[in-house]
Specification:
Blueprint lengths: L5 E6 L4 H12 L3 E8 L10 E5 L16 E4 L11 H22 L3 E5 L11 H15 L4 E6 L12 H13 L15 H12 L7 E3 H11 L1
Parallel strand pairs: 1-2, 1-4, 2-3, 4-5, 5-6, 6-7
């Protein structure tokens, strides 16, 4: 193993996008250590992977171990999975913001987080408002290389059944054919495109910090 490679932290590796990102990072020769912080195990071992099972809501318990060249935050939940708004906010707002604070405190210069298309701190929609407030709080930390991805509906398959999302994906699949020009950013996107974009951004400079779904697809194409 190349001991001179980079170290990356992944939050949310047990989820759909985080799991795909983890596999890509493990196969990427630029990285020698992938450090996972999560509540549950991904269920396998790898010589490049270090898994730390922690309560992400208690950053003081893992602050000293939170050290890397880059942090990838794929944390997120849904209304159906977490109907309690306080718990929902603790996950979708609290964990990414706490991670950004730790990046600033520990001198980590690259932080890449998944938000959502439509994020707006003043939105009347709780989901969009929470994401928008998270984005603002993350940017306030002034981490040199901060990138916020705003994907539209993900087209990948999830392990748990989400009927509402399944219906939405079928509708989006049909509408993708007519979503061109200004509507392009609303087309559904594959999690592999999101993860390719994240890795490309971690290894290149980019001019903007908030990256909408159509731009994610373009950057992902650069990754190959």
């Amino acid at each position: 193993m190349d001991t001179q490679g980079k170290t990356a932290i992944v939050l949310g590796a047990t989820g759909l996008t985080g799991g795909i990102l983890l596999q890509m990072l493990l196969e990427d020769k630029r990285y020698s250590l992938i450090r996972l912080f999560s509540r549950s195990s991904v269920g396998y071992e790898h010589p490049k992977m270090e898994e730390l099972l922690v309560n992400l809501a208690e950053p003081e318990t893992y602050r000293e171990k939170f050290r890397a060249d880059e942090v990838f935050c794929c944390i997120g939940t849904t209304k159906s999975k977490t109907p309690n708004k306080a718990k929902y906010r603790a996950i979708d707002y609290g964990i990414p913001v706490q991670a950004a604070v730790l990046c600033r405190e520990n001198g980590i210069k690259t932080f890449i987080v998944i938000s959502s298309l439509g994020a707006n701190p003043k939105s009347k929609v709780f989901y969009n408002r929470t994401k928008g407030q998270m984005e603002a709080a993350v940017l306030k930390q002034e981490i040199p290389n901060t990138y916020i991805l705003q994907p539209s509906l993900l087209a990948g398959k999830r392990e748990e059944r989400r009927i509402g999302e399944w219906i939405a994906r079928q509708v989006m699949r049909a509408m993708n054919l007519v979503m061109v020009g200004p509507l392009d950013k609303y087309r559904s996107i594959y999690p592999e495109q999101v993860t390719k974009c994240m890795i490309w951004l971690a290894n290149h400079k980019y001019e903007q910090q908030r990256i909408p779904s159509d731009e994610i697809r373009k950057i992902a194409h650069r990754h190959g």
